[in-house]
Amino acid sequence: MQLQERINAFVKLGDFIRQFSNTNIRKDEKVEHNALFFDGFKHQLKLAEEHNGWFTLENITFALNSWADALTPENLSKWVQPYDFSKVTPKTVAIIMAGNIPLVGFHDFLAVLITGYQVLVKQSSNDKHLLPFLAKYLEYVAPNFKGNIHFSEENLEDFDAVIATGSNNTARYFEYYFKDKPSIIRNNRNSVAVLTGNESTEDLQQLSEDIFRYYGLGCRNVSKLFVPKGYDFNPFFEAIYHWHPIVEKAKYANNYDYNKAVYLMSEFDMLENGFFMIKEDESYSSPIATAFYEYYDSLDALRTKLKAESHQIQCIVSKNFMENEVAFGHTQKPQLWDYADSVDSVEFLLAI
């Protein structure tokens, strides 16, 4: 397949996905192969929600909307433009996917196929319904993809490189197990927000999207706040209050109740509003329904700290604080060229 053929296939996939990009699912008669795939994918959404309580229809459709917005001719062409695909030789790349949020491994899947390689996917058991169906759709709109997409539930064999995502413990296992293969190994990272006290109500409302989307389970979710000494948290709590219905979801409520009980029994100081807690803590990774916060003395000292600890951080949400910051409300809307852990996966693939 030529590069443009691969781009065209993913554009058609984006058109198909767009039908499911909000909870009011609507069929578009102009989309190719809808007679074969529309009802089937609608059923896969239902299965995914039933299988994983964190995958609500709202969160699944939010993820699908993000990918529909990404898979446009303009975005795909802009993404691939800097790379030279002319010397690609056939290779197979294994992807071991996480399952914390819907379709979290799709970018790796896309990168391998857009490069012209075969992909061998090992999915998380938490997110196993959506991607195989979308892969089938790809094979229909671009039959040359047939034979290039493989899924496996067994040990992975016969591949040339690997992209693996897991916990810190799993990542150490991956590094040892795949030590003889070109690899990208990803482990736990978290995202932070830097507040100065000058944020508008709208800024803080946008920040709540970065905190609560996907119940805070993604590495791009903000789990830590850096605030100046004497910071008044009242405007923050007021701005995020529109998310209070989240506590009506049983899995979230159970985590909120449990973590609140732990903090109270341990006599930790924390602030809470009935559905969310903040606790002073130096760690980056906070439990569900909780954000940690830490005071800073100066913005310059904080920049130095965050640069030194960048290996623990996925995104920094702020306003005119530092280079490569993410705007409030945009952590879960990455562009195709916003690579996880700032590692260019296409560049890695082309260098295999």
UniProtKB/TrEMBL annotation:
The keyword Protein biosynthesis is annotated on this UniProt entry: no
GO molecular function, one term: acyl-CoA dehydrogenase activity
Keywords noted in UniProt: NADP
InterPro entries associated with the record: Ald_DH/histidinol_DH, CoA_reduct_LuxC
Ranges in coiled-coil conformation: none
Gene Ontology BP, a term: bioluminescence
Keyword rRNA-binding annotated: no
Record Pfam families: LuxC
Name of this chain's protein: Acyl-CoA reductase
Source organism per UniProt: Hyunsoonleella flava
